Description:
The complex is a heterodimer of chains A (316) and B (247). With 316 residues, chain A is α/β, with parallel strands linked by helices. Chain A contains twelve helices and 13 strands. Chain A has helices spanning 2-6, 52-60, 81-85, 103-113, 118-131, 147-159, 177-193, 203-209, 227-233, 248-252, 278-288, 301-310, and strands at residues 12-23, 26-37, 40-45, 67-72, 88-91, 165-169, 195-200, 212-217, 220-226, 237-242, 257-262, 267-272, 292-297. A six-stranded mixed beta sheet of chain A has the order 5-6-7-3-8-9, with helices on both faces. In chain A, strand 6, helix 7 (177-193) and strand 7 (195-200) form a beta-alpha-beta unit. In chain A, helix 4 crosses helix 5 (118-131). Chain B contains eleven helices and no strands. Chain B is mainly alpha-helical. Helices cover 83% and strands 0% of the residues of chain B. Chain B has one domain (2-246). Chain B has helices at 2-15, 17-49, 57-81, 83-91, 94-98, 104-132, 141-168, 172-188, 197-203, 205-213, 219-246. Chains A and B meet through helix 3 and helix 4 of A and helix 1 and helix 5 of B.
Amino acid sequence: MTEQAHAPATEVLLEAEGLQRRFGRFQAVREVSFRLRQGEVLGFLGPNGAGKSTTMRMLSGTLAASGGRVLINGIDPLERPLGAKALLGYLPESPPLYRHLTVDEYLGFCARLRAVPRRERKAALARSKRRCGLDQVGRRLIANLSKGYQQRVGIAQAVIHEPRVVILDEPTSGLDPNQIRDIRQLIRELGRERGVILSTHILPEVQAVCDRVMILNQGRLVFSGELSELHRQENRSLIIQLDDPPDREALDQLPGVTRADPLEGNRYRLQLERGADHGVIAERIVRHGWVLQALCPEQQGLEQIFTRLTTGEGAA
Amino acid sequence: MILTIAGKELRGLFLSPLAWSLMAVMQLLLAWLFLLQLEAFMQLQPSLISLENPPGLTDLVVIPLLDSAAVILMLLVPLLSMGLFSREYQNGTFGLLLSSPVTMTRIVIGKYLALLVVVGLMLLLVAMMPLSLLLGGSLDLGTLAAGLLGLSLVVASYAALGLFLSSLTRQPAVAAVSSYGLLLLLWIIAMTGGKGEGLFRQLAISSHFHRLLRGLVDSADLVYFVLLIGTALVLTIHRLERMRSDG
């Protein structure tokens, strides 16, 4: 209810209800239910083999579910597969590229395959190339591109027909840090008007681009939450590094610090009170002359949840 | 949409040297056989004239050539069809087709159309040889037309069966080998005696083809080929629909 009060215009673009998938006797995904709204970037997080890719494949309609159902913009893909698929863009785990084609040929083929009207094809091609930073490589063979560029061609393919829902399975794998930054920005852009689902096992990625995170473990949805709430919970500890550290007791006396734990190499973790001001702490350290080398908020909220939920059965 | 898929396949087939080399090999072998038959005919010709109803160029050169072409193409067409689905599975590109708003039927027909274009080109090359005889001799054009129709139907059946077997496996080589097995079986199944002879003859590609080669265009034979091609394509579509649930 509060969600709707926040943004009344957003609509549910994708709805999964009790999704299940068995491979023989192996239950890969069990009872996964969630909703994706317009303007939302949803991150699927989980260790390898948690069922992320299987879930993504079911959402994209390339794998039939053993139980449960998916609705895309209210359309059941089982009843109207073509209508549902026209609203979807999907990047599988390994980008589905025809290596003997050039980037332009390939994207042109994808545009036709996704039923982009003839008159709009050229513009769609140019737009998706620009978005994914492929302007310079349009005439090169996909086989000769680096892995990072191939990955970007894979993303370009998924957005060329302006789908309302974009499903990206590990979109930043194999990219260098600059490319990762570009792709993350692209994902945030896409998430403004569309719904984006992405899977990853990289925690900072979720923190960088997602509005909401869902953690999968052993085929089960074990956590679902808004990232903004997680942010509010975290930052309750600081990691600092001092060249000339005082006794631990002296650190305990800093304003807003409840406890200081020494780490290796003159580093300390400061547990903070609610509302503690990082600036005041830094200023105090400098005034004491302890030679502050580094100070950073510890991003551990999500990581802690992830570790707790995905290691060992009992922990969950 | 069908043409989009067919166009992409054709590009793939002709960008790789495979289609070209297959055509070259076929043309080399058939040209050799053609010239052998022609030479034999030239040597026989003086003695043929004394016969009351002598067999002509069509019977002695053209028909044997088309018969050999059917066998040689049996070895070549599976090499064209083997990768059409299995390579898509292998490269993970099948997911692109599956997630696109295209029906399986269109995917299958698109790919089959591309195959038909390539084998059509091959048939054209084959047809040039007997037609070149018109420069210096006369042919029974009716028999020739029936023979070419038969060869086209046979090759179209190869292509459809090859496409189906390609949809069954991730390994192009397995698709090719199993196509050879199936096509050869359908070819030799007529060589049988005793019980069930009639049935086996009805099933064999060769017996229907040989009737057409003799110039007999019987609707039963045409229906056989249409059914064979249709069955193979429907099975392929079915198989692809199952892919989604099998994973």
